[in-house]
Write a structure and sequence with these properties.
With 164 residues, the protein is α+β, with helices and mostly antiparallel strands. 52% of the residues lie in helices and 17% in strands.
Amino acid sequence: MADAEPTLSLLQRREIEARIVGPLVREFIDAFGRDETMEVVRRVIVDLARQGGAELARSLGESSLEAFAATLDRWKEGGALEIELLEQSPDRLSFNVVRCRYAEMYRRLGLEDLGSALSCQRDFALAEGFSPDIELERTQTLMEGAPFCDFRFRRASGPTEEAG
């Protein structure tokens, strides 16, 4: 029988990662200081998210905002995110996350101070890795105590000349 990769939801993956990475980050903070440690954590998480976005685009065979929007179900899997869709078009995808079980999980694990670095900052790099033509604006998150996360993706305006 071939080894099949277990199917975990993203929320389950993040919890497994948090249970390992959280204590490591705490020890590194004690040994090397918070600022230095968190800068390394941010750099690593951003690089991983950018790579993940590029891999997602490759697996879909396209990197349009419409293709990106079609992946929302993966992020919501298992009730991980409850979203309020505000706008969806070829040029815009706007929604609010009104419940985030990622934030709840980090709080439950006593890692709420690390949750933003380990999870929320992935969003910008994921979009960037998926397509340089997709821009994300977000001004608040549940993780940081806001009443909702405001995700506003848009297709970057710029020259759309065909090569030829």
